[in-house]
Amino acid sequence: MNSEHLQLLVTRTMPYGKYKGRLIADLPGQYLNWFAREGFPPGEIGKLLALMQELDHNGLSSLLDPLRKR
Predict the structure, then answer these.
(1) Which of 2, 7, 9, 13 is 20 to 30 Å from 22 by CA-CA measure?
(2) pLDDT per position as a tens digit, 42-57
(3) Sign of CA dihedral 55, 16, 21, 1
(4) Counting Cβ atoms within 10 Å, is residue 22 exposed (0-12), middle (13-18) or buried (19+)?
(5) Cβ-proximal residues to 67 (8 Å cutoff; 6+ apart), any chain
(6) Of the candidates 59, 44, 58, which has an alpha carbon nearest to the alpha carbon of residue 9?
(7) Residues 19/46/56/29 CA torsion (nearest 10 deg)
(8) Is 70's pLDDT higher than 90?
(9) Greatest Cα pair distance in the chain
(10) Three-state DSSP class for residue 56
(11) Cα 64–27–63 angle (5° rounding)?
(12) pTM higher than the cut 0.85
């Protein structure tokens, strides 16, 4: 995990699916958990979803709050 990836969580939107257009940082936990069970997509989007799922699962989503205010 690096600061660039954390910044992407609050700026990159979900490119497809039920939550298309929503910030990755704002995706619901159950959606992230579904990806964790079924498999994350390849590439950068998959890495970001996996990182967000890890943050959400461990109750660390508030770490993104300072990045949202930039």
Answers:
(1) 2
(2) 999 999 999 999 999 9
(3) positive
(4) middle
(5) 6, 7, 9, 10
(6) 44
(7) 30
(8) no
(9) 34
(10) helix
(11) 15
(12) yes
Which pair of structure tokens corresponds to residue 43?
Answer: 């590439």
Residue 27 is given by DSSP the state S
Angle between helices 29-38 and 43-57 (to 10 degrees): 120
pLDDT tens sequence across 5-28: 999 999 999 999 999 999 999 999
Q: Tell me: pLDDT of 69 over 80.
A: no
Find the Cα–Cα–Cα–Cα dihedral 9, 14, 15, 18, rounded to 10°: 170
According to DSSP, residue 20 is labeled T
Domain count, the chain: 1
Where does residue 41 fall: left (phi above 0), alpha (psi -120 to 50 degrees), or beta otherwise?
Answer: beta
**Residue 1 has which token pair?**
């995990």
